[in-house]
Structures are given as structure tokens and as C-alpha cells.
Design goal:
By secondary structure, the protein is mostly helical. The chain folds into three domains: 112 residues, MetI-like fold; 28 residues, no CATH class; 208 residues, MetI-like (MetI-like fold), CATH 1.10.3720. It is built from 17 helices and four strands. The protein starts with a helix and ends in a 5-residue tail after the last helix. About 15% of the residues have low confidence.
């Protein structure tokens, strides 16, 4: 969180005060890390980046780097929007008082643009990385000890003398790239075949979740307290539950609770994502209904319409139009979240890229191609959502 906030501040200031080159670089960083699923970023940083840099990255630091970069791309736009929402007169007044730009942003602009919270402490204890290979033992004997990458080990396994490790080759410049491995032996065709499963899962779960969201939103607005509280508990449960944990529980936990009742991987993912999307969209629809004037309800009631007729003929169609941009954002987030289903064996893009990396022993090329593939698919969708926000912007 601290790293993400720091990157967000630097990125926001760079977009507002940097030149066109710096602005373009930061914009590309934002689009890249907001368009690529977090799971792909974690896999690339932990498995592919060490090969590129010729060094190992502990799991804790790999996760920290991935989360900081991912969160920083969102915080950059949040801080930038907060700064742009402030009147320009404050900057002019501060400049008239002789304040430097650093003083202006540090004392006036940033404290108003966003309130920073100090996150809780994290453990920085690094555990040994089991992924690190065991160094091979050379066949040469030196004084009755085996030479083990700078360590002289006696026959009983005790380290007698620790020497400096041999120099390593900087693979940053000398790594033998083999991009042709992507389109050899139909590898690219196999990887692109996973798009069908990703799109199928996204479309089916989004449609089912949207239909269910109408009923959940109506229940949240019900005059009966028991119905409202039941819908409230449902929404809070599925909005706060991690999707990865939910996938594992549905696929492995439900058959344990109900012996003889097994769910396929696709059905498990479909069930969980539909319930999760319904909880998210129901709150958006409820907010859209509450944003409408009460006069419409009173007028419909005076015409003798029943409550369910008022909701589904008058209120919901208008609320749906108001929350179209939110629906688009949820669609993009769902498309990226489908990358998690590879843990239960669904053959989508992430699953196939992992299989190819194991088969070809070229994780850097395969995962880089997967990252770029997700970017090329998701980035146009995100730009389309931006247009939806501009088109369906509501002014009261």
C-alpha cells in the first residue's frame, strides 16, 4: 500500500507537471498495469523477471512489487483527479505568496487531494525460497573437499571456508531471446484458443449476475426489514470474500459438504462469479434508483401501480441507464478476474500460458506474450468504458 501510494503521488505529479514524454510514459504505465490481470503480473515478476535480470526475487518482494505497481496505476489517476478537482485560484494564490511548487503541492494541494492513511506494519522476515535450485557440485576435489560455488564443503557436509561466488553473466544484455518459440508448433494458436473460454466465462457470468442484481437491488429497497437485511448480508459477504478463496472453496469444499455432488471447474467458476457480480451490480443499481426523484414513485402510486410495477417499469430502466459506466467498469474487472480460474484447471489464457512455459522451458517469452495479449484485449475495453462515462454523465 505504501509503495502504491508513493507511486501514485509521483505519477500524478509527473502527469500534471512533466513534459509530453514523461506524460506518455506514465500514461502507458497506467494503461498497462490497469489492463493486465494481477495474477499475470505476479507470475511474470516471480518467474520471468528473475531470468531477465539473472537474479532471484524472494516471494515476498515479488508480491510487494506486483501489488505496488498495480495499486500505483490506480492511485495515480485518483490523485490526479483529486488535484484537478481543486480550484486553480489556490495555486495562483500560493504562487503569489512566493511559495515554491514543492511547497504548494506538499502544504496545500496534496493534503486536499487525498488523505493518506498509514497502513499497518508488515512482516519483513524473508523465508528461504524453495524455488532456488540446489547448486551443482563440481567433480574437482580440492584438498579432500568438494568445491560448491565458492563454498568448500567437507565430507560431513560442514562448510569449512566461504569464498566469493563466481561472477555471473548479466543476462540483461546477453539473454538469448527466442521469440520464435511463440509461433512454433502452433503455440500461438493454442494460446489464442484460451480467449474463447475467457470470453465465454465473462459473458455468461456477467449476464447471470446482472439479472440476479435486479432482484437483489429490489430486495435492498424493500419495505420489509427481514428482506433488506437478508439482501444486505448477501451483498456484504460476496463483496468482501476473495475470489481466489471462493473458487477453491466452491470447487473443493462443496463436494466435501455434499458427497456425491461434484461441480465441474467451469460450473464452479460460473456459480461463484455470478454471485459475486450480482452483489456488486446490485449496489450500483440501488444507488441509481436512490438518485431518482421520489416524485416519480408518488406519481406512479397515484396511478394505481403496484410496487413491483413501479420498480421494473419506471425506476429500474432509468437506474440502469445511469449506471451504464459502472457496468462497463465491472465488465473489465470481471474479464481480468477470470485469469484466476486457472487454479481449478479451466483452460483459459493463463492456464495455457503456464502449460506452454512448462513445455518449452521459456517462461520469459511465454509470460511476456501473455501479458501483451491481455493488454491488447483489455485496453480497448477500458477506453470504451471511458467513452461511456463521458456519454452517460449525469448532471443534476
Amino acid at each position: 500500500m505504501v509503495g502504491g501510494i508513493t507511486l501514485g503521488l509521483v505519477g500524478a505529479l509527473g502527469r500534471l507537471g512533466g513534459g509530453w514524454i514523461g506524460n506518455a510514459i506514465i500514461k502507458f504505465y497506467i494503461d498497462l498495469f490497469r489492463s493486465v490481470p494481477l495474477a499475470i503480473q505476479l507470475i511474470w515478476i516471480y518467474f520471468a523477471l528473475p531470468i531477465f535480470l539473472n537474479t532471484s526475487i524472494p516471494r515476498f518482494w515479488a508480491a510487494g512489487i506486483a501489488f505496488a505497481l498495480y495499486e500505483g496505476s490506480f492511485f495515480t489517476e485518483i490523485f490526479r483527479a483529486g488535484i484537478l478537482s481543486l480550484p486553480k485560484g489556490q495555486r495562483y494564490a500560493a504562487a503569489a505568496l512566493g511559495m515554491r511548487p514543492s511547497q504548494m503541492y506538499g502544504r496545500i494541494i496534496l493534503p486536499q487531494a487525498g488523505r493518506l492513511r498509514h497502513p499497518g506494519g508488515r512482516s519483513h522476515v524473508q523465508q528461504p525460497d524453495p524455488r532456488d535450485p540446489v547448486p551443482p557440485v563440481h567433480a574437482r576435489l580440492d584438498g579432500g573437499a568438494h568445491h560448491l560455488h565458492g563454498d568448500y564443503v567437507s565430507a560431513d557436509g560442514r562448510v569449512q571456508l566461504r569464498l566469493q561466488p563466481p561472477p555471473q553473466v548479466n543476462l540483461l544484455a546477453s539473454y538469448p531471446w527466442h521469440w520464435q518459440i511463440i509461433w512454433e508448433d502452433h503455440h500461438l494458436q493454442y494460446l489464442l484458443g484460451g480467449i474463447k473460454m475467457t470470453v465465454l466465462l465473462t459473458v455468461s457470468t456477467f449476464a447471470s449476475g446482472l439479472v440476479l442484481a435486479f432482484f437483489i437491488a429490489a430486495s435492498r429497497l424493500s419495505r420489509f426489514r427481514a428482506v433488506r437485511w437478508t439482501a444486505y448480508l448477501y451483498v456484504e459477504f460476496f463483496r468482501t470474500m476473495p475470489l481466489l478463496l471462493g473458487l477453491l472453496w466452491v470447487y473443493y469444499g462443496l463436494p466435501t459438504l455434499f458427497p456425491g455432488w461434484t461441480l465441474s471447474p467451469f460450473l464452479s467458476a460460473y456459480l461463484l462469479f455470478s454471485l459475486n457480480i450480482a452483489a456488486i451490480l446490485s449496489e450500483a443499481l440501488r444507488a441509481g434508483v436512490l438518485s431518482l426523484g421520489k416524485g416519480q414513485r408518488w406519481a406512479a402510486a397515484s396511478l394505481g401501480m403496484r410496487p413491483w410495477q413501479i420498480s421494473y417499469r419506471i425506476l429500474m430502466p432509468q437506474a440502469l441507464r445511469r449506471v451504464v459506466p459502472v457496468l462497463g467498469s465491472t465488465w473489465v474487472a470481471l474479464f481480468k478476474d477470470t485469469s484466476l480460474v486457472f487454479v481449478i484447471g479451466i483452460s483459459e489464457i493463463t492456464y495455457r500460458s503456464n502449460a506452454l512455459s512448462i513445455e518449452t522451458y521459456r517462461p520469459l517469452e511465454i509470460f511476456t506474450a501473455t501479458l501483451l495479449l491481455y493488454f491488447l484485449i483489455t485496453w480497448p475495453q477500458a477506453r470504451g468504458v471511458d467513452r461511456l462515462y463521458d456519454r452517460y454523465r449525469t448532471y443534476e
